[in-house]
Amino acid sequence: MIDKLKNFDTQLFFCINEKHNAFFDVVMYWASHKWFWLPLYLTLAIFLVKLYGKASIYILLAIGMVITLSDQISSSVIKQWVQRPRPSHEPDLLPYIHLSKAGPGGMYGFVSSHAANVAALTIFLILLLPPRYKLLKVAIVSWALLVCYSRIYNGVHYPLDIIGGILVGIFSGFTVAIFAKRTFIKKEY
Question: Sorted alphabetically, which InterPro entries does this protein's record hold (predicted)?
């Protein structure tokens, strides 16, 4: 059963990874680059400060908590426990993988920290933001999906690495959002 699952995961990886071109090579490289998204993060921070006023300090701290939680669970716990090599570190697969200019990444890929972190932030913001911000929520989900897809496209994660990371992110985002709503977000804005 495990071998069939790994085989399916590898086939799905190649199905996504082999469909590349010069335009999307650039797009997906930058979609995975953490500093590229800094303007988005700053814009979100400014928006949250305007929306929540004084309470925004707690919300920004909660965002720090949610990212730290998802990153530590994915990188320091699960990756070290499972130790599944990334496809880019599998000698038998390497000749067939299309890698971005970012390179092969660290040794282990399960679960994807990129996927965990963007999913955690996405879930946190979806649960935090008032219902009237539906379009913003759709944009945030689209951003998260782009980042997750780029990890497979760039050759550094299997699809199950991404799914595992998303699950870690959902857990982290949901946990911190519930804590935040019960602790310091008292009213609907």
Answer: PAP2/HPO, PAP2/HPO_sf
- Among 158, 122, 159, smallest CA distance to 142 is for 122
Q: What is the pLDDT of residues 40-96, one digit of tens each?
A: 899 999 999 999 898 899 999 999 999 999 999 999 999 999 999 999 999 999 889
Q: Which domain holds residue 51?
A: 2-183
Say if residues 180 and 62 touch (Cβ distance below 8 Å): yes
What dihedral do alpha carbons 7, 12, 15, 16 form, nearest 10°?
-140
Residue 72 lies in a domain: yes
CB atoms under 10 Å from CB of 161, counted, come to 30
CATH number at residue 119: 1.20.144
Asked if residue 143 lies in contact with residue 118, where contact means CB atoms within 8 angstroms, the answer is yes
* 188 lies in some domain: no
User: Which amino acid is located at 184 in the chain?
Assistant: F
188 band by pLDDT with thresholds 50, 70 and 90: very low
Is the omega angle on the peptide bond into residue 77 within 30 degrees of 0, that is, cis?
no
Instruction: Domain count for the chain, please give it.
Output: 1
pLDDT of residue 189: 43
Stated pTM of the model: 0.90
